[in-house]
Structures are given as C-alpha cells and as structure tokens.
Amino acid sequence: RVLVPHLLVGQNFVLVQRPALVARVNMTTEGDAVEASVVSIQSELTPLLSSISNDGVRHLQEPKGFDKESPGGFLCFKNCKSSLSSKLSTLPGVAVPCILSIFSVILFLRIGYVVGMSGVGPSLGMLVLCYFVVLLTVLSLSAISTNGAIRGGGAYFMISRALGPEFGGSVGIIFYLANVFACSINTLGFVEALTTNLAEETGILAEILPNTSNWRYLYGTVALVFCLVICFVGASLFAMASLVIFVAVMVALISVIVSFAAKNSFLAIVTSSSECTNNTNSSIHTSDNDILFACHGGHCCANYTSWSISTLRNNLHSDYVEDYSTHVETSFIVIFSVLFNGVTGIMAGANMSGDLKNPSFSIPVGTLGACLFTFVIYAVIMLFTGLTCSRSLLHNNYNYMLYINVWHPFVTIGVLCATLSSALSTLIGASRVLQAVSQDNLFGILKFLYQDY
After folding, report:
1. Within the chain, which residues score under 70 in pLDDT?
2. What does the alpha-carbon distance between residue 450 and residue 138 come to, in Å, rounded to a whole number?
3. For residue 119, which phi and psi values (nearest 5 degrees)?
4. What local confidence, expressed as pLDDT, does residue 179 receive?
C-alpha cells in the first residue's frame, strides 16, 4: 500500500481522492486484462470512473500504472491499452453519425418540396430558425458533457446525473422510444427511395424488383436485419460502415452540386397525366407559376432552366399548393415540420458516448461541427435549386435531383445510403440508451437487459 497525493493504492483496490469526490475502486485481474468497479463514491453527479484501462508504468513518484495524460481524466492501468485504442475518436464517433442522421432522406427527396412550396427566402429563414432551436440544445448538451466523466447512454446519462434519476429515467424511456420510431421512419424512407428509383416503371431495376406492398415490407425487413447485425457486432463495425456510407453520400452530394453548374436547360419528366397524353409539345398552365409541357410517352415535363436570375426571382416567395404525393394542402407549418425533421439528428454522436475515447471533447466539437457543415450544405442546395429549377418542376417532382444529375445512379446511391445510415444510427443509439437505463436499475423489469463487457 503506497500513499501519494490524492491517491491511495492497495493490493486489490484504488482509493481516488479529488475535490468533492472520493471513490473506492476494486480491481480484479483476469489474464492480461485489469478491470475495476466502483465500490463507493461520494458525488453522484459526475461519477469519476466507468472503467479503468491503461497505458504503462511511469516512475516511483507516480503510482504504478497511472497515466495522467489519459483522455477524459480516467485512471489507466497496465495491459489495457487495447481498450482505449478500440474506442472512437471525434470524426467517426460523433461528426459522421450526426451528419448522416441530419441529412437522412430530407437532403435528396424533400429540399425541392420545401423550396417549391415556401420559396428560397422563406426556406432559408426556416432553416435559420431550425438551426437556432437545435443550437440551443447542442450548447446545453455541450455544457453537460464537459462537466464531468461521461459513460454510455448519451443524453440519458447526462440528464440523469445532472437532474437526478427521476428526470433521467423518464427522458431515457421516451428517448429510447423516439429512436426506435425514428429508425422505422428512416427504414420507410429507404424503402420509398428504393422503389421510387429502382422498382417503378421508369426504374432501372423495374423488371427485377417487384413493387407490391408485401415486397416493400420485405425490403424494409431486410434493411432492419442489416442494421441489427451491425449493432450486434459493435461500435467498431458501426464506425466503419458509417465512414463508407459517409463517403458515398459525399460523392453523391458533390455530383449534385456539380450538376447544378454543368447541366444545360432541358425538360424534365415530372409526372404522368392525361392532360399531356394527346398534347405533344404543347404547354399546360396549371397555375400562375406552374407551366407543364407535354413530352414523350404521355408524360408531363417541367423546365429546368439552369442558372437564371429570373428563375430565382420567381422562386423567391412562397407558393403553397397541394402536395401531389399526398393530395394534402400545404402551409408554412407543414413545410416547417418537414424541414425541422431534417435537422434533428444531433443526438447520434452523443448516443455513442460510451464508445468514445474522450466524450467530453468529442461530443461538443463533433456535434457543433456537424451542425455547421450541414447548415452550409442545406443553404447551398436551397439556393442552387432556386436558381435553376422552375416552380413547376419543384411542385411536381420531389426527386428532381435524379433527373438533373450528370450520372443518375449517384443520387440513387446517395438517397439509399443516407436513409440506411440514419436508420442504423438511431437503432444503435436506442440500444445504448436502453442499456444505460437498465444498468441504473430504474425499472426492475429491464435489469436483465444490462450486461457489462
């Protein structure tokens, strides 16, 4: 037993003493691994340790195995270096999951809907309002995450340690259910993107992929099983899959931005209509701003004007009409709710708190960086859409990016990857929250779900 300032090391325990914080930790050795469990701790607001791992022996002045430079202020003991090396850094652990969750299906399938109904000016205003609301949440999240050691459970862990188990437990269960439903919504978005781009009459795999309700249910089930397998394997495979999907989405996004600049004006197919069947090369005025043209195959077409100030002027203000896909009248509230859903993936990184090397640093930096990046991308896409696409195109074809892209499969791949990654991040986030709630034994019937590895 060696006594040093703030640290008492015994044969099989460590007593850690810090201002307003005293913890006794039992240590057990199995093979090359050293594990520790907190026996008692005075402060319940910010537990000092969740696990003890390690780096090596220093000098006699420092306890054997103690590494003062270990991330997050944790104590490190010998032969557990792999525990830290297997955890995630800021980019793969927080920034990438947040970016992919924020983009989801909104980026490729609903930006045209938002700009077409609300106009460029109101759309940018709504975007600023959405991110202002989100920023308040991110700043609160950052303040809590930098106020002590962070374990697994994300927002649930932070709230339960800051406000107590009553608030934390209620928020944890609701947050778990919200992630589960978000996973199902993103899976439905994946199926919609799959059938719209590949399985419909104009799809490139229309003869191979059936498009009935039972088959769509099967596609969604396969996607969920894929996400489940990745969650079972663990955070390392999740990070690897997220990086691959992130690269695919970025390639698709770059192709869209390049296409806005490179594509010349043309007539894009918007929908099939009896009005266009017998009126080849004639124009059909459906409203003051909607001018559809009859084109080949009995389809209605709308004008893609390429870069045009006059197109921007026409798209500057709102023009709410009936949603052609749901036949429901739109309004500011309806459009805002759709757009706000596209900026709510900010908790994807915080949900991985137990798998991060240094959560107190990674969560605020990664989340704020993801918000800034996605805000710029959304604003650029909205502005470019308003500069190049006629109102009739935006009103009648929400998948317009597919038609204006220099290579159509880029958008298809981007949509599928974005929706699948959002489903994956919400599913693994839900499992982490439920595990943390079970660990704290707030609900006795859930205790069996917790297993510490």
Report:
1. 1-86, 148-149, 199-208, 271-298, 445-453
2. 28
3. 90, 165
4. 86
User: What pTM did the predictor assign?
Assistant: 0.74
Task: Return the exposure string of 171-196: e unless at least 16 CB atoms fall within 10 Å of the residue's CB, then b.
Answer: bbbebbebbbebbebbbbbbbbbbbb
- Residue 286, number of CB atoms within 10 A of its CB: 15
User: DSSP secondary-structure letter at 229?
Assistant: H
User: If you search the block for the tokens 């319940």, which residue do you land on?
Assistant: 44
Measured distance CA(411)–CA(393) in Å, rounded: 17
User: Phi then psi for 4, rounded to 5 degrees?
Assistant: -135, 165
Tens digit of each residue's pLDDT (9 = 90 or more) over 295-320: 656 677 888 888 989 999 999 999 99
Cα separation, 29 vs 347, whole angstroms:
36
Strands (E), 250-390: 266-272, 283-285, 291-294, 299-304
Query: Closest by alpha carbon to 156, among 442, 446, 398?
Result: 442
Amino acid (one-letter) located at 268: A
Q: How far is Cα 248 from Cα 416, in angstroms, rounded to an integer?
A: 10
Query: Is the distance from CB of 53 to CB of 84 less than 8 angstroms?
Result: yes
